[in-house]
Amino acid sequence: MTEPQKTYDANTAMAAERTMLAWIRTGLALMGFGFVVAKFGLFLRKLAELRDVHIKVSTNQSLSVWIGVALVLLGVAVNIAAAIRFLGTIRSLESGRPASPTRWQLAVVVAMVMAVIGIGIAVYLFKLK
Question: Buried b vs exposed e over 113-129: b needs ≥16 C-beta within 10 Å?
């Protein structure tokens, strides 16, 4: 028996890899942004101390930490999902099946979660007013 022929070329494999790398960059950006948001409450407290201003730091700091942690965890989830999706795509291509998109695209899920987090941040900033 002959070995089955690969039905995809190097360009297809490299395109899948570029897509995965783009998602990894997105995940890393989310983690970095989450770290900045988590430390924002600490920054507000230090700024208030320097200017001798009294603000409610305890609630502000804890909420920014929770939002920051959520963003970091979202970044981790994006990186894991990108790796799983990449491996599935390569397996599909190697078995001769076309790589078909999943019902819930990673981009749509990330966009929806970011929209919810964005609304939460907007409400949080509005309440600081």
Answer: beeebeeeeeeeeeeee
**SS3 state of residue 86:** helix
Sign of CA dihedral 72, 75, 80, 83: negative
Instruction: Give the helix/strand (H/E) hosting 92.
Output: helix 57-94
SS3 sequence of 18-78: HHHHHHHHHHHHHHHHHHHHHHHHHHHHHHHHHHCCCCCHHHHHHHHHHHHHHHHHHHHHH
Q: Round to whole Å and give the CA distance between 36 and 6.
A: 45
Burial class (CB in 10 A: 0-12, 13-18, 19+), 22: exposed
pLDDT digits (tens, 9 = 90+) for 80-105: 999 998 998 888 888 877 777 766 78
Task: State the pTM of this model.
Answer: 0.73
